[in-house]
């Protein structure tokens, strides 16, 4: 039967065993041996590492030839910077989670303290919406009065323009003033309508969360 050629793994094992066997004859015993590769690709075994190889990857064996540990290569400066950035982002994310948890706890406490039932939340919502509706009605009535005055002033300005020597400028200035009031009232109404939408959204969230808290207590 032809002898099989030794595999690379077997050669490595044999080399390791040979180095370990000879080590007591050439150097004082150490607890560990390092397996490292030089710049030419040659494998070495020693109980110390060359200074220029300390950052490189290496294997550590005990005196019996058992593999103890694989030490990865040290990170480059760029890799260390990336690692620091990753850690910073993780810390920021954790801080954000803690802050959000604290805010949620405070919100839940406020909700329990302020309302005793879903119906109470709905009543508070409806009361605020009704207050806004009343303010919108008042603004609309003011717009109606302003528009009536505008119509009268425009007729007055037109009449003065038809009269020889008339001076409608003061009337036009009054028209601009009243029109500005109308514009302000219309802007007020738009903001109150947006407020009503926000109240519905906010109190909808209150109701949803209150029900969740009730379910947790049950």
Description of the structure:
The protein has 218 residues and is α+β, with helices and mostly antiparallel strands. The protein has three domains: 8-71, no CATH class; 76-114; 116-217. It is 69% helix and 9% strand. The protein contains four helices and four strands, in the order H-E-E-E-E-H-H-H. It has a four-stranded antiparallel β-sheet with strand order 2-1-3-4, covered by helices on one side. The radius of gyration is 43 Å and the shape is elongated.
What's a concise summary of this model?
Helices cover 69% and strands 9% of the residues.
| CA radius of gyration | 43 Å
Note the beta-strand portion.
5-15%
- Strand arrangement, major sheet: 2-1-3-4
Order of helices and strands: HEEEEHHH
Helix and strand content put the structural class at alpha+beta
Secondary structure: number of strands: 4
Number of helices: 4
Mean pLDDT: 82
Number of domains: 3
Helical content, roughly? 55-70%
Q: Could you say which overall geometry the principal axes of the C-alpha atoms support?
A: elongated
């Amino acid at each position: 039967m032809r002898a099989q050629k030794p595999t690379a793994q077997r050669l490595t094992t044999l080399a390791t065993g040979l180095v370990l066997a000879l080590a007591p004859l050439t150097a004082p015993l150490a607890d560990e041996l390092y397996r490292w590769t030089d710049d030419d690709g040659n494998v070495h075994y020693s109980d110390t590492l060359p200074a220029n190889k300390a950052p490189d990857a290496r294997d550590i064996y005990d005196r019996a030839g058992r593999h103890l540990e694989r030490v990865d290569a040290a990170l480059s400066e760029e890799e260390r910077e990336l690692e620091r950035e990753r850690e910073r982002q993780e810390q920021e994310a954790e801080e954000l989670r803690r802050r959000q948890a604290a805010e949620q706890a405070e919100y839940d406490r406020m909700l329990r303290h302020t309302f005793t039932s879903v119906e109470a939340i709905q009543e508070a919502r409806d009361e605020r919406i009704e207050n806004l509706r009343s303010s919108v009605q008042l603004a609309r009535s003011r717009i109606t009065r302003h528009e009536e005055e505008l119509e009268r002033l425009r007729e007055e300005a037109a009449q003065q323009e038809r009269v020889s020597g008339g001076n409608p400028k003061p009337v036009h200035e009054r028209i601009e003033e009243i029109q500005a009031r109308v514009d302000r009232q219309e802007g007020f109404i738009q903001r109150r309508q947006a407020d009503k939408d926000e109240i519905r959204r906010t109190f909808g969230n209150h109701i949803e969360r209150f029900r969740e808290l009730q379910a947790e207590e049950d």
